[in-house]
Amino acid sequence: MEPNTIFLIFSFILGAVVGSFLNVCIYRLPREKSLAFPPSHCTSCSKPIPFYHNIPIISYLILRGRCYNCKEKYSWDYLFVELLAGILSLLLYLKYGPSIHFIFLFAFVMALIVITYIDLEHMIIPNVITYPGVIIGFVYSGLSTDYDTLKFLMENLQYNFLYILFIFDEIKIFSSILGAIIGSGSLLLVGFVYKNVRKIDGLGLGDVKLMAMVGAFLGWRSIIFVVLISSLVGTIVGLSIILYQKSNLKYAIPFGPFISFAATIYCFSGDLSLDYFLD
Ligand SMILES: [Zn+2]
Asked: Domain count of the chain?
């Protein structure tokens, strides 16, 4: 096999193994349980799951999604999360290869999977993910900033709007800081409008912090894309639910999954004049 094929297979396995851990996070984080203790056990009969019954994807298929002990049927979601994490990891490796972008965007996308599932089930986005997420996003941007270009731009500093905008575009750490600010700011604004028009709280602070994390990782331009696409998809899904149920939406639908979806797409669509950013 070619080395590249081996790396591709490895990236899928890495994603699936991490996906298995994501399932633990999705179940335990909102229940405020420890991620490490106790070790994996059946949520039905509490029997510990030995490692040979805990192989990502394969164990689920061999045991046909049932507990090896009490035969309780497990949700398809466990398998789906492991497959999704594996596929996204493979696609990220295809796009970015062995690079700092792969490492950080892998962590970013994995966090988005956990956020999506927890928000769908519990209508919360844990601070335990978004706070460190913002910091790690800044670290990523700081590490991938071109400091020679920054030095050059600073030495030739011009005090006009276009030049300043150009700096925020070219210098990743600046783009990242601006992204976190306008990301959270734009969602606060959307939430404010929503509250005054529909008289209900449509967006939570969790969504605001999530957008700060997206901006920190992907830069300020991504915010335009993510706000547009997540609102569009969210509206389509919301209207479909209303039509399907033939009733008004009395409960709010979580917005985190739509933000996560749009941000994941953005990781791959590096063409919306983003080449500068994801090179
Ligand atoms: Zn069991």
From this structure: 2
